[in-house]
Amino acid sequence: MPLRFPLTATDTPSTPEKIAGIHADPGFGVYFTDHMAVATWRKDGGWSDDAVVPYGPFQLDPSTAVLHYAQEVFEGLKAYRHADGSIWLFRPERNAERLNASARRLMLPELPVDDFLTSIEELVTVDAAWVPDAHGGEASLYLRPFMFANESFLGVRAAHQVTYSVIASPVGPYFAGGVKPVNIWVTDAYSRAGKGGTGAAKCGGNYASSLIAQYEGAEHGCSQVLFADAGTGVNTEELGGMNIMVVTAGGELITPALTGTILEGVTRDSILTMAGELGLTPVARPVTLAEIFERIDSGDIVEAFACGTAAVLTPVAEFRSHQGNHVIGDEPGPRTMQIRSAILDVQYGRADDVHGWLRRV
Ligand code: COI
């Protein structure tokens, strides 16, 4: 039976004035809409109890498995308001599939793609007033689907009861400076993911383990951290919360190939698909840190950017490490801004959706 996520709430939603105040300065992930979608999975009965309910705390027993063993996965996608007022999602099926890939790795149940889409669409419909206008920039409603082991039990095994939920947060740019280029710390002290680990899954533990490196970077004036592969420390992998790409003087757009330890970003995939249309040659291959730094220093890599749903494309000013700094520049590069505009134009309905990536709510 497909899930329907019916609205069960009879609460009083936020006033237009309150929402307008939040939309004026939303930050990222600070404010949440009036409702959330929920569903429960039980080992003996599958998915049920699907609903859209007022946003509010979960009541968790102190022995709830996720609090101890971090059996949890999540997603990130956005709802965009077009100029005519309509609301659209960008490739949400990809998020549904990735949630299931992550769930398989963490021994959580899969949620049928259609149920995932229904949960998002019902929540966004109920809280439509919270989807901001683009405001000439990149304001959107960030959607955070997640799933966690919600069983009171301290044995180490896959939970027999799991909660799925979607919450929504009106957001502006992920980085406080917007498109101002950021500095990236290249850590040699920490790894993000090893062979056979959870690097390709979007699970909270990956982000928890990246925090210490992120803070190491912050001490060196950096707002993201770049990890090398855990095995050799030679190959470029990804940033703490997003993928990395570089642009060469010859027009190649290079990003590390998916190795099983890198998150398969939807934005990453979209950029690689669009690159050819923008006159760039997309290249996904193993790429060493040494190659990137040597080519920056010789002027052959001319731009670099972080990419992800939250970050969109955020230019990189400089890579910093204990071995030295590799400077690209304080101004966003033209290729970075061209790709950034191209993807935002599709998301906000300002360009033709030639790939069929948009889905109307
Ligand atoms: C996203 O880009 O949606 C993420 O989940 C990354 C996180 C840093 C917000």
UniProtKB/TrEMBL annotation:
Cross-referenced CDD domains: BCAT_beta_family
Cofactor(s) essential for the protein: pyridoxal 5'-phosphate
EC number: 2.6.1.42
Pathway stated in the Swiss-Prot or TrEMBL entry: Amino-acid biosynthesis; L-isoleucine biosynthesis; L-isoleucine from 2-oxobutanoate: step 4/4; Amino-acid biosynthesis; L-valine biosynthesis; L-valine from pyruvate: step 4/4; Amino-acid biosynthesis; L-leucine biosynthesis; L-leucine from 3-methyl-2-oxobutanoate: step 4/4
Residues with the N6-(pyridoxal phosphate)lysine modification: 202
Keyword entries, A-Z: Amino-acid biosynthesis, Aminotransferase, Branched-chain amino acid biosynthesis, Pyridoxal phosphate, Transferase
GO BP: isoleucine biosynthetic process; L-leucine biosynthetic process; L-valine biosynthetic process
GO terms of molecular function: L-isoleucine-2-oxoglutarate transaminase activity; L-leucine-2-oxoglutarate transaminase activity; L-valine-2-oxoglutarate transaminase activity
Family matches, as InterPro entries: Aminotrans_IV, Aminotransferase-like, B_amino_transII, BCAT-like_C, BCAT-like_N, BCAT_family
Entry coiled-coil feature ranges: none
The keyword Transferase is assigned to this record: yes
Swiss-Prot/TrEMBL catalytic activity: L-valine + 2-oxoglutarate = 3-methyl-2-oxobutanoate + L-glutamate; L-isoleucine + 2-oxoglutarate = (S)-3-methyl-2-oxopentanoate + L-glutamate; L-leucine + 2-oxoglutarate = 4-methyl-2-oxopentanoate + L-glutamate
SUPFAM superfamilies the record matches: D-aminoacid aminotransferase-like PLP-dependent enzymes
Pfam families assigned: Aminotran_4 (PF01063)
Top-rank taxon: Bacteria
NCBIfam families for this protein: ilvE_II (TIGR01123), PRK13357.1 (NF009897)
Family of this protein: Belongs to the class-IV pyridoxal-phosphate-dependent aminotransferase family.
Record protein name field: branched-chain-amino-acid transaminase
Gene: ilvE
